[in-house]
Design goal:
heterodimer; A: about 250 residues; alpha/beta; 4-stranded antiparallel sheet; 10 strands; B: about 290 residues; mainly alpha; globular
Chain lengths: ~250, ~290
């Protein structure tokens, strides 16, 4: 396996004074690969992404990007470190045009030549963005909005893209298109950390997979192996973690 | 009613609506950016009017020149108020607590004005105070035209600022999806502070415009806050164009009703429109597609 680009090691994190959501979680994302996190509701999948993008500071553990410790960074510093986070649901600025949305993706970039170059890149990668450039983002379909969010996140030339349930609320055909775009991001050289409820579909697109439950990684390995694992088929492609633990014990 | 009187009322309504639009734009900015109900907005309006009056009585210069001082001062005060007070309120109860907090600020301003300038009514006397223009039989006071011009220029400046500048885009993004804006590297706390400052700067302009043509006294802000709150609810909370459209419509209606009903009863149009909105369209008439645009 290649060197990890992003590494979250022994992470413990939670919201406010509430109980921990992540309990000693370790996840690594190698360069140019899609790592998929699957698991039941409440397993802590979205919390992993919040920690990785600096929206939630871990109580303990370390986060490194390219070997540099970024554990205490906030969202702005994480963005500079190369993390781009696409939120769950729709997070386009609905009353702004696609052009304005994508332009805001480069809010922290001062070099206008780099912005122009990056704009061309995302327009090529996501043709619908170029086609609907002057349309209000709120007038686009759910799948198109998701692609605008992808394009916006790539404007800062990130190292790792964090995707939180990109297929949420989309029909099967649109979901397929969205996953194709995720694969295209990987093929363009990006690392992707993907959280998804649609576990089977996500693992089919991913290189590596991690199964989360109760804030910990229970199984990790090549996505194809996880898909072929009979325990996965029984449990996480429609089951519960506790039964997995029982399986392990046996 | 003669056609000249009708025309005069219509024009006066539009001129008044312009001022309402500017003030309501400020009020809706606070709500859009932070979900804050800013009861003290009209108290700052009266404070600006007093500062304009004080400036003119002390220097003998035109009150419009006081804007050079009051606009940056109010912007800084708004920024400071958001960062030091409002941002410390718990998100879960922010809207409710902001009512209480800004109500207290309004009382402090009213008390301070009463202490410094007494409760005596004040009015700026200008060389052009009694000048008027005649238009097809309708008489329009020059000060009202100046006040409208000031409001119109300020609204245009606000529009260009929000639409064409990097700060404006960041502010609109913060209003529309704060978390997503934060993930793009926008310092949403700082931007919210600037947004608040911008809202208070509109009160500085509005207060100066008001001082040109109104008799002012410390408790005058209570007379303004009701109609302004009604305008932003009718326009759709958070929608600046909605607030502007509602302001113009209600300003004209109020002016037209003043002829048969008198000044006091004409103002009830704001509350009747508010009741009707809450009953039939609680999200406001422009709270859908128009909300957050601008």
């Amino acid at each position: 396996m290649s060197e990890p680009l992003l590494e979250l090691r022994d992470i413990e994190a939670g919201y406010g004074r509430a109980a921990l959501v992540l309990r000693g979680l370790t996840v690594t994302v190698p360069a140019g690969q899609i790592v998929c996190l699957v698991g039941p509701n409440g397993a802590g999948k979205s919390t992993v992404l919040k920690v990785a993008s600096g929206m939630l500071t871990p109580r303990s553990g370390t986060i490194t990007v390219d070997g540099v410790d970024v554990t205490r960074n906030g969202p702005q510093q994480m963005l500079r470190a190369g993390m781009a986070h696409v939120l769950q649901g729709h997070s386009v600025f609905k009353e702004m045009t696609v052009a304005e949305n994508v332009g805001l993706g480069a809010y922290t970039v001062r070099d206008q030549a780099a912005v122009a170059e990056r704009t061309d890149f995302v327009k090529t990668l996501f043709p619908v963005v170029a086609e609907r450039w002057h349309t209000l983002a709120g007038a686009l379909s759910g799948g198109q909005q998701k692609q605008v969010e992808f394009a916006r996140s790539l404007m800062v030339s990130p190292k790792v893209v964090l995707l939180d349930e990109p297929s949420m609320g989309l029909d099967p055909k649109t979901t397929a298109t969205v996953f194709e775009q995720v694969v295209r991001m990987r093929d363009a050289g990006l690392a992707v950390l993907l959280v998804e409820q649609n576990a089977r579909r996500a693992l089919e697109s991913a290189d590596l997979g991690c199964v989360l439950d109760l804030g910990k990684v229970h199984i990790a390995g090549p996505a194809a192996d996880l898909l072929a694992d009979p325990r996965m088929a029984e449990l996480y492609l429609g089951g519960a973690a506790s039964r997995l633990e029982e399986g392990k014990a046996r | 009613m003669s056609s000249a009187l009708l025309l005069q009322s219509l024009i006066l309504g539009l001129l008044l609506g312009g001022l309402y639009a500017l003030l309501a734009a400020g009020l809706t900015l606070y709500f859009g950016v932070m979900r804050v109900v800013m009861i003290a907005h009209s108290a700052f309006l009266i404070l600006a009017a007093y500062l304009a009056w004080f400036f003119t009585t002390q220097t003998g210069l035109d009150p419009l020149l006081s804007l050079i001082i009051t606009v940056p001062l109010f912007f800084a005060a708004g920024y400071g108020m958001q960062r030091a007070l409002l941002s410390r309120l718990r998100p879960a109860t922010l809207t409710m607590m902001s009512v209480l907090l800004t109500f207290a600020i309004a009382l402090v301003i009213e008390g301070g004005l009463g202490y410094l300038f007494s409760g005596t009514q004040r009015r700026i006397q200008l060389g052009y105070s009694s000048a008027s223009l005649e238009l097809w039989g309708a008489r329009i006071a020059v000060v009202k035209l100046v006040a409208f011009g000031l409001a119109a220029v300020s609204l245009l400046a606000l529009y260009l600022l929000l639409k064409k500048t990097r700060f404006g885009q960041a502010l609109r993004a913060t209003i529309q999806h704060r978390e997503a804006a934060q993930l793009l590297g926008i310092d949403t706390d700082r931007i919210a502070g600037f947004g608040f400052g911008l809202g208070l700067a509109t009160a500085a302009v509005g207060g100066t415009a008001l001082a040109l043509d109104a008799t002012i006294y410390p408790s005058l802000h209570w007379h303004w806050i009701g109609p302004l709150m009604a305008i932003i609810v009718i326009g759709g909370l958070g929608s600046i164009p909605g607030a502007a459209i509602a302001a113009m419509l209600l300003g004209v209606t109020q002016a037209l009703l003043q002829i048969p009903m008198g000044t006091t009863w004409a103002q009830t149009v704001f509350y009747l429109a508010l009741f009707a909105t809450l009953m039939f369209r609680p999200q406001g008439f422009f709270g859908g597609r128009l909300a957050q645009r601008f």
